[in-house]
Design brief:
Elements: H1 6-30, E1 36-41, H2 50-58, H3 74-82, E2 87-94, E3 99-106, E4 109-115, E5 118-123, E6 128-129, E7 141-144, H4 151-163, H5 165-170, E8 171-176, E9 182-186, E10 192-196, H6 201-218, E11 224-228, E12 236-239
Length: about 240
């Protein structure tokens, strides 16, 4: 008569118990009600407020405690947040202890545009970003005939300024002339920088930084009315 292997039977029973407990725990976790929401921002600047994000998270509910986990569509929530003009990317998930969490990466402005009665930011991707009632970015102001310059060319200039710590602090304004030339204003000096067409961007800015370093040393910088960068081989200055 074949002997019963009680060790194998015990192993099967243990495995069935584990599966049952895991299934029971998972089902209980999915059907529990959320207790609160937590929002964190990747950047320190808050162009969109915590309250605004929370309202987007709970959407058709009065509070987060009215939401059951298994009734929550996380993909839909993320898409809803991503559609907000202040948000670049959102990640939404729930935790086992009943929290609804959202990690928000906001769009990054590189310039503020004044176009007629309209004012908005341009972000790092070249898109329009509305002004925020809770935070104001310190970025160059762009005015003038924006339609006379190719957007991708202007964006190249703005990104170069944004990525260069020195120029980011030095250049506070850009005016686009009707013929597509750029004029820039300095934070520390009252001369006008004649940049010309938005071409040879890196070369022109390197020329300007080299000129500025020498001019500050000689203390002649206060005498200049215009700094002309149109000629990539040299910087031409006009005195007051």
């Amino acid at each position: 008569m074949k002997r019963i292997n009680w060790n194998n039977i015990r192993l099967v029973v243990i495995l069935l118990a584990v599966v049952f407990l895991y299934s029971f725990s998972g089902n209980r976790n999915e059907t529990r009600w959320l207790e609160k929401s937590e929002v964190s921002f990747v950047q320190p600047e808050n162009f969109i407020t915590l309250d605004e994000v929370n309202k987007l998270l709970i959407q058709n509910y009065d509070t987060v405690t009215d939401i059951r986990k298994d009734k929550l569509d996380l993909n839909k929530l993320e898409k809803s947040l991503d559609q907000n003009p202040m948000i670049e990317k959102a990640e939404v998930y729930t935790t086992v202890d009943g929290k609804l969490k959202a990690i928000i990466r906001q769009k990054t402005p590189v310039a503020r545009v004044y176009k007629g009665a309209k004012s908005y930011y341009i972000d790092t991707e070249g898109g329009e970003m509305p002004l925020s009632s809770s935070y104001t970015a310190r970025v160059p102001l762009v005015t003038g005939a924006l339609d006379s310059v190719e957007p991708s060319r202007l964006q190249q200039v703005l990104l170069y300024l944004y990525k260069n710590d020195f120029l980011k602090k030095n250049i506070i304004g850009i005016q686009v002339t009707p013929n597509g030339n750029l004029k820039m204003l300095s934070r520390n000096y009252d001369y006008v920088i004649e940049f010309g067409k938005p071409v040879s961007v890196e070369r022109k800015f390197k020329n300007y930084m080299a000129f500025l370093q020498d001019a500050v040393k000689s203390k002649a910088i206060e005498e200049y009315k215009t700094i002309n960068l149109k000629f990539t081989q040299q910087v031409v200055c006009t005195k007051k």
